[in-house]
């Protein structure tokens, strides 16, 4: 198994990324290799000072970088030799099993859509977030930022994809799928959410349990929580700020500790024909290490192959 | 000053409401009276067992009740003798200075729109929530649930109303107004939020400081945070669930403690020609008492008169 990592993406790239990759390299399971993508000379300079098993780390040169603030579509098409461009090329050619980046999320979405492409008729692949639960587990929330505006049909796609992901990745039979809303009743909420409720209710591919509200998020009422990327993004960032606040104040708690973005390390883009994980721009080495292990678990679970199969029927 | 309280509205009405009113009645400032609205016989039954200064509590009979699940517009027009209907009648006739209810929020919105009416050309009065800050203060977030779908123009109205409210109620000169978004850059976010950003940028009535994100909510970067009622509602309910969780786990912290809905007790509907406060359906006596004191402070500040004046110019 080969996990590709974009060394140039992220606020603290390339140093934090290489450091995280090295921590991971020292703990990799048998048969897993990392493929670091970036400017070779820079990677070598950083790696020179570090200890890691050389057989577990390959390097692939990429001369260009897509910066955090660049226009995703334009940058992706104009910079085929960027670390993100090269990563998607390797992924598409199946030279690597997964591609991870803490860089320009928009460019990662563009690569997902136009290089590896979506499964079936999926219109808008969501970014899925791992929402920590009081009981120690996670719910999958999607979307958490890729799609700020969603049609009801797109929310229904998220529901199906989330159901498949939790089934094959978390091993949950018949996952409970809920719609995030501002009331329990089906006529509550925005026009889009009301229409989505009706689509989810009649969708036979999912086990729809109805609406959940902001107060239910950590209760584990649902395995999958469907929402537009706008509210999903606000929820995750608010959770992170709780963790930061608690850490500042010396509050230690198992639920709050898992609101730290570093713990899951990244978020998969799902509904595409490949394993793509994106991470926070501010990612620390610890976060990068955890993103790599998330990618390994995802590849091992074959969740992406299962999702592709489900849409081929 | 007279503060009217709907005794019949709320999950634990009438008992919790009367109990909260009695706690308040025992602490009222000079010259403030409560006007309890509900079925007289029920109110008398509960009050009989309680100690309170009789001169500070009046009762007004209302034979009907708008239930929590009823269709707001239909119920409001078909039940003029409901406690909510009677409350708005008293408010419109200026027999009371404020009207508070933990009952059907939709019916409270309908009463606000069609009885006391909006100021100026305001289309959609928001419900404003008090978001606790790390520094001990509050930001005003609006809307937190009345308007799940908002046009950009409506978000601009929220910005103006929030600015006026914090100026006259919190005493902040030139309040900082921010737009909740999923990135700092103005081209981020949903179509509506992007358009709203442009409207806020050119609005000379407010001090617009740009976007804030989910991670900034408790930092006090802005005095006013503008958002659609969907996301605003999710944020407040998520905050409440944090408080509940922390309370369960014995975590005591000044910020988290103020995420308890009971502390502010209620949320004003603003942009209307009267003082209307709505509260959580689950309101406890403590919450009701605090809602009454919120109403008293709001009446004392004359914020509603100031807002009306601003729109008459």
From TrEMBL, chains A, B:
Keywords: Acyltransferase, Cytoplasm, Lipid biosynthesis, Lipid metabolism, Phospholipid biosynthesis, Phospholipid metabolism, Transferase. It comes from the Bacteria. It is an enzyme of class 2 (transferase). One of its GO terms (cellular component) is cytoplasm. InterPro entries: FA_synthesis, Phospholipid_synth_PlsX-like. It is found in: Cytoplasm. One of its GO terms (molecular function) is phosphate:acyl-[acyl carrier protein] acyltransferase activity. It catalyses: a fatty acyl-[ACP] + phosphate = an acyl phosphate + holo-[ACP]. The keyword Nucleus does not apply. Its main location: cytoplasm. Pfam families: FA_synthesis. GO terms for biological process: fatty acid biosynthetic process; phospholipid biosynthetic process. Pathway: Lipid metabolism; phospholipid metabolism. The keyword Translocase does not apply. Its EC number is 2.3.1.274. PANTHER family: FATTY ACID/PHOSPHOLIPID SYNTHESIS PROTEIN PLSX, PHOSPHATE ACYLTRANSFERASE. Belongs to the PlsX family. HAMAP family: PlsX (MF_00019). Catalyzes the reversible formation of acyl-phosphate (acyl-PO(4)) from acyl-[acyl-carrier-protein] (acyl-ACP). This enzyme utilizes acyl-ACP as fatty acyl donor, but not acyl-CoA. Homodimer. Probably interacts with PlsY. This is Phosphate acyltransferase. It comes from Emticicia aquatilis. The lineage of its organism: Bacteria, Pseudomonadati, Bacteroidota, Cytophagia, Cytophagales. The gene is plsX.
